[in-house]
């Protein structure tokens, strides 16, 4: 007698808390590549990491934005 296969349960979207987001963005600001962070943390793509960074900088205000611009200038 064959057993019936259970239907696949959809995984749904993973939820990440603010601390996780903050630590991931901090890794990016510390100089790790977005690709290496995505691989290490098991994220789906770099897009989510850059979205978290943009939100974090927006909440931090103009000082953080100018600091980010200075970092980009130094890297270039």
Automatic annotation (TrEMBL):
InterPro entries: Homeodomain-like_sf
Protein's recorded name: Transposase
Organism: Lignipirellula cremea
């Amino acid at each position: 007698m064959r057993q019936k296969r259970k239907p696949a349960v959809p995984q749904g979207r993973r939820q990440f808390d603010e601390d996780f987001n903050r630590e991931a963005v901090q890794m990016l600001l510390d100089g790790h590549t977005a690709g290496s962070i995505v691989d290490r943390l098991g994220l789906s793509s770099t897009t989510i990491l850059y979205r978290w960074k943009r939100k974090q900088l927006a909440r931090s205000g103009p000082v953080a934005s100018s600091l980010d611009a200075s970092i980009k200038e130094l890297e270039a």
